[in-house]
Amino acid sequence: MAATAQRIVLASRPAAEPAAENFRLEQVPVPAPGAGEILLRTLWLSLDPYMRGRMSDAPSYAAPVAIDGVMEGGTVSEVVASNNPDYKVGDIVLGRSGWQTHEVANGKGLRKLDPKAAPVSYALGILGMPGMTAYFGLKEIGKPQEGETLVVAAASGAVGSVVGQIAKIRGARVVGIAGGKEKGQFVTEELGFDACIDHRAPDFAERLKEACPKGIDVYFENVGGKVFETVFPLLNSFARVPVCGLIAQYNTIEGISETNWVPQLMRGILTKHMTVRGFIVSAFYPRFGEFAGEVVEWVKSSKLKYREDVIEGLENAPRGLIGLLRGENFGKRLVRVG
Amino acid sequence: MAATAQRIVLASRPAAEPAAENFRLEQVPVPAPGAGEILLRTLWLSLDPYMRGRMSDAPSYAAPVAIDGVMEGGTVSEVVASNNPDYKVGDIVLGRSGWQTHEVANGKGLRKLDPKAAPVSYALGILGMPGMTAYFGLKEIGKPQEGETLVVAAASGAVGSVVGQIAKIRGARVVGIAGGKEKGQFVTEELGFDACIDHRAPDFAERLKEACPKGIDVYFENVGGKVFETVFPLLNSFARVPVCGLIAQYNTIEGISETNWVPQLMRGILTKHMTVRGFIVSAFYPRFGEFAGEVVEWVKSSKLKYREDVIEGLENAPRGLIGLLRGENFGKRLVRVG
Q1: pLDDT class for A61, splitting at 50, 70, 90?
Q2: Share of chain A above pLDDT 90, in %
Q3: Which residue on chain B is closest to A272 by alpha carbon?
Q4: Of all residues in chain B, what percent carry a pLDDT higher than 70?
């Protein structure tokens, strides 16, 4: 088989915002599966904020991608050759092939997808990691109650959109934060949030306060930076802050207070009996069935709405990620690879 | 009855460290109990860090003491006159008479103490509010496990000393932080902590790190400020930080980083899956029986050791509180009033 595979490797580590030169597209022969192995051809590659962390060698919960290593990522793939009795050609699987068109795998750690149950790409979004982040962050930490107010940023994105819609199902008042008028309209009109505030507006803080007349009981933290500073004073007693991401801080931190307000932060946590808890969704992967049991039904019945933001072609994955980190995506961003 | 009572009122609100002129000692007639009422004579007045908060009118979880109002505080008192069938002269009760020698009460919200069970002053310390703070902060949030490392500051104080000893009972390695050699010796030799570090030492950070070779799993936060900055980088994945007080920040904050490290704090909480949770012990008062069931036995059997730091005379309560906020106390500070 003389066919050519493509892959994108990490060429260098970015100091702040990633740029095209941090990535390198390589052409390599399509690998051949050995005994017990299968050959996967990537259909969809997920782009997610955490990938910025993998490009850095700062200590984190996961090891960084090595220089010259293939960029990591969740993928939906088709089995195109199989020496493994558990898989047949044509099977669609969820895996972590990374930023490449082909991968040889031993079949472990893959999950077969049923194309009749839902679009297979959903396994990278609302029915996958981002959906589970929203679901378990709310179920285990945020716990929105009827009549409480929940705020979530990146409200039109993969996690924020699901957070807000589940909180609405739970009976909370839901206020989103998103950049620009178009996203705001989508969030309120399509997703049914009670309000959506533009974080770029000069009167952002005032408008957020107006939208939360009874304060904030749950702040689902996925952005950090300036938005966190604005939200914090509005948090109520016994507020819960699940922390799943800090996208506004991944490249560089702009627009935040110069004053060290850690003492005030801790004072707020104390005097308002707050809970601030970081979590990594993989800790909840063993509970996938519990998640799917509720969320698949909500998606089928359109109780949960979902929007994808598709980049065409693996070669465009770098600018797709760079744009995601700038908030350019409108919905769950993913790459149609093949 | 021409007898005179004494009381200390809040004369003015301190801007930073409280001073003698913020308090005023007043002589008033001993009040007479009406129908259904009792007259209490204060034996012991507890001095606690939260009192600094009540002197300020900054928003907090409890209303401030009014100017010219009697300073609040927990007390152990003797019933010296009674028009209430539930109390007889000579009964010893735990209440909140505040900084005064006498109070007329209706009997509600008091708890009778048995002088044979334990010294009655213990109800203001290890068998009372500070003990419950330690007990429930560990039980509900800190949850030290066998072999984990717990750090607590103000280690010879009313809360810290109990935190560390209970964590030892639970099988944790316990490192205290305290000011000065004498307190450090007491903490390790008397209370049985594994180590105690002097926060005034110029190499405090290095010594703390050395004392925690496997990092820190539970940091019981009662001081804030510089100590928190030093502890934070040492926290392990899945660390728990119960926040019950921030005594180092109540007057003024010195020696902390000028850089706004809130983004780094949030990043640590995220990437290490930490839980930072504030709590106010009064939320656990309904569970007093659960607390007493374990702690009374531990005190009786000397599994828990306890040291009191007694100030003589109500007129010395102001300097007792000022000193407490400076860390001058050595053990649970309280005032012998009568």
Answers
A1: confident
A2: 94
A3: B61
A4: 99
**Shortest CB distance from A266 goes to which of B228, B260, B263?**
B228
Residue B329 in 3-state DSSP?
coil
Same domain, A174 and A259: yes
A–B: how many Cβ contacts below 8 A?
A: 120
B123: nearest Cα among B153, B96, B86: B96
Residues B329 and B242 in one domain: no
- List all residues 6 or more positions away from A143 whose beta carbon is below 8 Å from its beta carbon: A218, A240
pTM: 0.93
Element at A27 (helix H, strand E): strand A23-29
The answer to whether residue A70 is domain-embedded is yes
Contact B84/A at CB under 8 A: no
Q: Is A159's Cβ below 8 Å from some Cβ in B?
A: no
A174-218 pLDDT, tens per residue?
A: 999 999 999 999 999 999 999 999 999 999 999 999 999 999 999
Residues A196 and A243 grouped into a single domain: yes
Q: Which domain holds residue B175?
A: 129-282
Q: What is the mean pLDDT of residues A90-118?
A: 96
The reply to whether A246 touches chain B by the CB within 8 Å rule is yes
**In which band, very low, low, confident or very high, does the pLDDT at A253 lie, cut at 50, 70 and 90?**
confident
- Whether residue B72 is found in the same domain as residue B157: no
Q: Is residue B65 part of a domain?
A: yes
Rounded CA separation A43/A337 (Å): 5
In B16-143, the DSSP E strands lie at 23-29, 38-46, 75-82, 92-95, 102-105, 111-112
C-beta of residue A133 within 8 angstroms of C-beta of residue A281: yes
- Nearest residue, CB atoms, A256 vs list B260, B268, B274: B260
Contacts of A257 in chain B (CB under 8 A): 260, 262
Q: Which CATH number fits the domain that encloses residue A79?
A: 3.90.180.10
Domain of residue B271, CATH code: 3.40.50.720
Residue A260 to residue B262, Cβ atoms within 8 A: yes
Whether residues B263 and B191 share a domain: the answer is: yes
How much is the mean pLDDT over chain B? 96
What is the per-residue pLDDT across B9-68, written as a single tens digit (0 to 9) for each?
A: 999 999 999 999 999 999 999 999 999 999 999 999 999 999 999 999 988 888 999 999
Name the residue among A60, A257, A260 with its Cβ closest to that of B258. A260
CA distance B124 to B131: 9
Q: Which of A225, A263, A278 sits opposite B269 (nearest CB)?
A: A278
What are the residues whose beta carbons fall under 8 Å from the beta carbon of B33, sequence distance 6 or more? B39, B81, B82, B83, B84, B104
Helix (H, G, I), strand (E, B) or coil at B220: strand
Instruction: Kindly state whether A220 is in contact with chain B, defined as any CB-CB distance less than 8 angstroms.
Output: no
Check CB contact under 8 Å for A270 and B229. no
| Claim to verify: residue A244 and residue A146 sit in the same structural domain | yes
pLDDT of residue B1 exceeding 60, the answer is no
Same domain, A138 and A68: no
Count of domains forming chain A: 2
Place of tokens 């005023």: B24
Evaluate whether residue B301 is within a structural domain. Answer: no
Are B196 and B253 members of one domain?
yes
Residue A254 confidence (pLDDT): 81
What confidence score (pLDDT) does residue B2 get? 57
B261 touches chain A (CB under 8 A): yes
The pLDDT tens digits of the residues spanning A123-163 come to: 999 999 999 999 999 999 999 999 999 999 999 999 999 99
Question: What is the pLDDT averaged over residues B292-297?
Answer: 95
| Beta strand A111-112 pairing with B149-152 | unpaired
Burial status of residue B287 (CB atoms within 10 A of its CB: 0-12, 13-18, 19 or more): middle
Question: Does residue B298 lie in a domain region?
Answer: no
